[in-house]
Amino acid sequence: MTEEEMRKRLEILKIEHRDLDAAIDALNLPGAGDQLQIARLKKRKLKLKDQIAVIEDFLIPDIIA
């Protein structure tokens, strides 16, 4: 995977992460929430966060000062 492809993938993951955040907020409204669905979305959101972190770590190398 090239650096450009990784950057595009990173942007897609960030958008999906934000979309899940909005979906979770909507399901948390009174009378709208299915707790099992919310738990699944939160689990998916955590997986996305981990994937984002891996790509960001690869793209942004540690600089030892």
Q: How many beta-strand runs?
A: 0
Strand content: under 5%
Sequence stretches where pLDDT stays below 50 over 5 or more residues:
none
Structural class: mainly alpha
The domain tally reads 1
Structural shape: elongated
Helix content: over 70%
Q: How far apart are the termini? A: 29 Å
Mean pLDDT over the full residue set:
91
Q: Round the Cα radius of gyration to an integer and report it.
A: 15 Å
Helix-strand pattern, N to C?
HH
How many alpha or pi helices? Answer: 2
Largest sheet report: none
Task: Offer a few descriptive terms.
65 residues; 2 helices; DUF465 domain-containing protein
Structural write-up:
By secondary structure, this protein is mainly alpha-helical. The chain has one domain. Helix content is 77%, strand content 0%. It has two helices and no strands. The longest helix has 25 residues. The two termini are 29 Å apart. The model has no long low-confidence stretch (mean pLDDT 91).
